Amino acid sequence: MEPQGSVNADPDDSDGEGRCTGWRNWSGFWLLGLCNNFAYVIMLSAAHDILKKQESHNTTASTEATLAVDFQGGNSSNSSRYDCNPVSTAAVLLADILPTLVIKLSVPFVIHNLPYGIRVLFCATMAAASFLLVSLSSAVWISILGVIFASISAGLGELSFLSLTHFYTRDVLGGWGSGTGGAGVAGALLYSVLTQVGLSPQVTVQIMLVVPFAMLISYFAVLVPPPSLPQWKSRRTEYAAVGSEENRGLIDGAEEEEEDRSTPVTEDVSTGPLTFTEKLHIIKGLLKFVLPLGLVYFAEYFINQGLMELLYFPNFFLSHAEQYRWYQTLYQVGVLVSRSSLCCVKIRNLWALSLLQVVNAVLLLFAVRYLFLPSAWLVFAIVLYEGLLGGAAYVNTFYFISKESEDRHREFAMAAASVGDSLGIALAGLAAFPIHRYFCSL
């Protein structure tokens, strides 16, 4: 049974007001998903360009590999048949994901003490700070700090907004998933267009300060908050207030009935905050979701950061840099399509998606080693399919967690499960380094 004040019970929205509220909430979560990942994509794309302005040619050569998002072509001094960069693109992956991973591993245990309104303000502030640091920085370490701020904003935002879906109908998960999928395509496209028409990377990043503002508008103006949402007060405060009122009522009733006051009044633990033991029990039950999600993302980012750069076809009409960019673009298109598919199809067998993604990774690993793929066109199709699998795994994982979790556990479960994708990505980055070194040494 859904708690009073929660709208996760999928109420009847047949009336016009209900439909309007439903669309506002779906649109609000779509915009929140877009803003949460969009700022991250834009900031990282710009960091590479701005570093080139800050450092000398030699210094830039050593830092491009750690902060670049787009592969910039081969190294002319590299004799490898794979036309490798000196450092794997997995370096940027680890720099981007580790702050997010630390947040997702630790914050779900204490985040209930922080109201949602304050969380959103903090995420928007961190995103804005990342834009300002990267666009105005005069030193490499300041730009790196901007990367860290963007990672913190994205990590805290993801687990907070996934938890927030507990207070709304489950269809908002489709809006959130679609928005996060669109961020990769829209972010890279918008940055490319603005810089292509002549704006400097610094000015382009400063224009993107509208994104954190849009996040605040989406949350505070577009969403229709239910009465049960802890907007500015923590759950602990609410529990204490409710417990105080209930105890006061019991005591008043005891006075009227002249009952023994020595009998202790016990708190109903089913309505209080989750204990640490309960949270560990919930995490144990989430493994059936987190493990396949982590495996999907491990295989996915092992391809993207360990293999994609090495899938080079010299006789193709696109250059190495252009081939790599199209790989990334088609991957993001696949993610967008599948993350927007929750309204049409739901896939309960998450392990099937994981195994299919592992097959992709193994296939492309052997393709890099033995060079048996005839053309980049086939790789284009595979990476599009890779994006479809990854996006489908993400939205279906959180949909079924929301559907199958007990109402009292759902908010924590949604936040805790978000560690699955980040953990898989971090492990993929670590695994990509030796693979990259091995192939580039051939």
From TrEMBL:
<dbReference type="GO" id="GO:0012505">
    <property type="term" value="C:endomembrane system"/>
</dbReference>
<dbReference type="GO" id="GO:0051453">
    <property type="term" value="P:regulation of intracellular pH"/>
</dbReference>
<comment type="similarity">
    <text>Belongs to the battenin family.</text>
</comment>
<dbReference type="Pfam" id="PF02487">
    <property type="entry name" value="CLN3"/>
</dbReference>
<dbReference type="GO" id="GO:0007040">
    <property type="term" value="P:lysosome organization"/>
</dbReference>
<keyword id="KW-1133">Transmembrane helix</keyword>
<dbReference type="InterPro" id="IPR003492">
    <property type="entry name" value="Battenin_disease_Cln3"/>
</dbReference>
<feature type="region of interest" description="Disordered">
    <location>
        <begin position="250"/>
        <end position="270"/>
    </location>
</feature>
<feature type="transmembrane region" description="Helical">
    <location>
        <begin position="349"/>
        <end position="372"/>
    </location>
</feature>
<feature type="transmembrane region" description="Helical">
    <location>
        <begin position="116"/>
        <end position="134"/>
    </location>
</feature>
<feature type="transmembrane region" description="Helical">
    <location>
        <begin position="29"/>
        <end position="47"/>
    </location>
</feature>
<feature type="transmembrane region" description="Helical">
    <location>
        <begin position="140"/>
        <end position="161"/>
    </location>
</feature>
<keyword id="KW-0458">Lysosome</keyword>
<dbReference type="GO" id="GO:0005765">
    <property type="term" value="C:lysosomal membrane"/>
</dbReference>
<feature type="transmembrane region" description="Helical">
    <location>
        <begin position="173"/>
        <end position="194"/>
    </location>
</feature>
<feature type="transmembrane region" description="Helical">
    <location>
        <begin position="206"/>
        <end position="226"/>
    </location>
</feature>
<keyword id="KW-0472">Membrane</keyword>
<keyword id="KW-0812">Transmembrane</keyword>
<keyword id="KW-0813">Transport</keyword>
<dbReference type="InterPro" id="IPR018460">
    <property type="entry name" value="Battenin_disease_Cln3_subgr"/>
</dbReference>
<feature type="transmembrane region" description="Helical">
    <location>
        <begin position="412"/>
        <end position="435"/>
    </location>
</feature>
<protein>
    <recommendedName>
        <fullName>Battenin</fullName>
    </recommendedName>
</protein>
<feature type="transmembrane region" description="Helical">
    <location>
        <begin position="378"/>
        <end position="400"/>
    </location>
</feature>
<dbReference type="InterPro" id="IPR036259">
    <property type="entry name" value="MFS_trans_sf"/>
</dbReference>
